From TrEMBL:
Residues 6-131 form the PhnB-like domain. This is PhnB-like domain-containing protein. It comes from the Bacteria. SUPFAM superfamilies: Glyoxalase/Bleomycin resistance protein/Dihydroxybiphenyl dioxygenase (SSF54593).
Length: 135
């Protein structure tokens, strides 16, 4: 999917950990890649080398992220999450287990009336993920 075709993209704002998170996510999910990275130079306003704007994809869905040079009194909240449909039991198990390390489990990986296998987890960066197995 080319960047121009997807009109709505989730945008994740970090405070210095955007590249670390993006590398973590693209190493974890199947069919994922870093599409582009634009970094701050010595002129700022963010620390040199931190992320002005980056795009990565998971299963063809593009997600943007950045490092805010401004410290905020807020962070991610579980009231919005990224919903990912996994292709195999192995993928959902691996992704759920890895995302939950140093994170928080909101709904354990199990069978629910709406999904054969589903889990909801907040990762170590505070981003929340709903994972469901493809039927």
């Amino acid at each position: 999917m080319s960047e121009g075709k997807q009109k709505v993209k989730p945008f994740l704002m970090f405070e210095g950990r955007a590249e670390e998170a993006m590398n973590f996510y693209t190493s974890l999910f199947d069919q994922s890649e870093i599409v582009s990275i634009e970094r701050y130079g010595p002129e700022g306003p963010g620390p040199e080398g931190s992320v002005v704007k980056a795009t990565f994809s998971i299963h063809g869905q593009q997600i943007m992220c950045s490092d805010s040079p401004v410290k905020h009194a807020f962070t991610f909240t579980p009231s919005i999450s990224l919903f990912v449909t996994c292709d195999t039991v192995e993928e959902i198990n691996r992704v759920f287990e890895t995302l939950s390390q140093d994170g928080k489990v909101y709904m354990g990986l199990a069978t629910y009336p709406f999904s054969e296998r589903f889990g909801w987890v907040g990762d170590r960066f505070g981003v929340t993920w709903q994972l469901s197995l493809e039927k």
